[in-house]
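Let's practice the habit of predicting before peeking. Look at the sequence and jot down your guess about where helices and strands might fall. Then scroll down.
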Amino acid sequence: MLPFCLLRSTVTLTVTLSPLSLSSCFLRRHALRLRGTPTSCSARLCSSNSGNTSAAAPLPIQSLVERDWSFLELDTVNSDEERRQKALRIIAAAAVRECSRLLVCMGSEWFVDRLVESAPACVLLLVIHESLFLLAMIKEKYDQVRCWQGEIAAIPCDFSALDVVFVCYFPGMGVTTDQLLSSVAGRCSPGARLVISFDQGRQVIEGKHHLQHPDMVKSVLPERTNLEKAAAAYSFQLVEYVDEPAFYLAVLSFSGSTNSA
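Done guessing? Here is the structure:
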């Protein structure tokens, strides 16, 4: 998977294409609206040292796959008010402060809306997701939000010393619990919180999402025993764990130092 970083509301993308040393990639927004099938599109590149994009040469990007994650925006369990209250409970568990540096992994557009409302003074709000379409929609709303398309392990070092990491849909991240904790531990500040949640509960994932989207939902929410065992190996401590039929929340506190993992 190619890592992309959406920088501005014009849907500017930073693309890492070794061995090319090109730094900025501009995709037309309609290319991001094609869902579910591989997409061939043409990107227009320019030097980061030049403000003139008109002379930039086109670079073809073949088989850019945009899978449909819109099912994460649907909630068949909660009323609007219940969903809102659960989002606020998840955000409160993170103990967000002014000047916090926040990372949201696989969060829905709806959750990002609630987070922007609740933490307007944070220094950094970075959203990572597989879907370029969803990231483009978030970037169109909130230019201050940084967006990264790719895996959590590939996030640049500039996005370190994080105070809070929200993992909103762990089963869709394609990593194990150990891999998640290892990646997060190397980017957390002392005392940081890792919040793993799903506001519809484990049963929706195991009984519905696994059946309907087996190519995208490849794991389950961590069990308490396994999470505690993995947490200890990466300087995390489980401080809250809720596993109810319609709500899942696991909060871990980081006691190590940045880049200790």
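How did you do? Helices lie at 80-93, 109-118, 132-141, 177-185, 202-212, 224-233.
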